[in-house]
């Protein structure tokens, strides 16, 4: 009677190196830096709010503070979603403010 070999026939398989799993990465990339910093009172367009035109009031942490042309409640906008207002957009916003004032809706 012949004894069965304890190991399979052939050279042993080389050991595979143990590779640790890749570290988890954030799904949300960091926000890009804004392309410009407007001057105080400059008219800008917040594309994150449906192309809303507002006056730049300053920086509040990672956001910019904007307010409606001529006054009103300020809102915060993400800087990467803000661009300078075109001349036509500036004119439209100022005209809307003056029309509201003439109707007595604002002071």
Brief characterization of the structure:
This protein is an alpha+beta fold and 107 residues long. Helix content is 15%, strand content 22%.
Structural class: alpha+beta
Order of helices and strands: EEEEEH
The DSSP helix count reads 1
Question: What is the count of β-strands?
Answer: 5
**Which percent bin holds the helix content?**
10-25%
Largest sheet descriptor: 5 strands, antiparallel
Terminal CA distance: 110 Å
What is the spatial order of strands in the main beta sheet? 4-3-2-1-5
Average pLDDT for all residues: 84
Radius of gyration, taken over Cα atoms and rounded to an integer in Å: 31 Å
How would you describe the shape? rod-shaped
Low-pLDDT runs of 5+ residues are none
Question: In what range is the share of β-strand residues?
Answer: 15-25%
How would you portray this structure in words?
It is a single chain. By secondary structure, the chain is of the alpha+beta class. The chain is built from 1 helix and 5 strands; from the N terminus they run E-E-E-E-E-H. The protein has one helix spanning 87-102; strands spanning 43-46, 52-60, 63-67, 75-77, 82-84. A 5-stranded antiparallel β-sheet has the order 4-3-2-1-5. The radius of gyration is 31 Å and the shape is rod-shaped. The N and C termini lie far apart (110 Å). The model has no long low-confidence stretch (mean pLDDT 84).
């Amino acid at each position: 009677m012949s004894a069965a070999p304890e190991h399979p026939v052939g050279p042993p398989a080389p050991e595979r190196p143990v590779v640790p799993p890749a570290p988890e990465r954030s799904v949300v990339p960091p926000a890009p830096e804004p392309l410009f910093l407007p001057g105080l009172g400059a008219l800008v367009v917040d594309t994150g709010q449906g192309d809303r035109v507002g006056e730049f009031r300053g920086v509040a942490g990672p956001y910019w503070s904007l307010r409606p042309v001529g006054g009103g409640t300020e809102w915060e906008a993400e800087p990467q979603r803000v661009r300078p207002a075109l001349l036509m957009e500036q004119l439209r916003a100022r005209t809307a403010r003056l029309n509201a004032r003439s109707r007595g809706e604002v002071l």
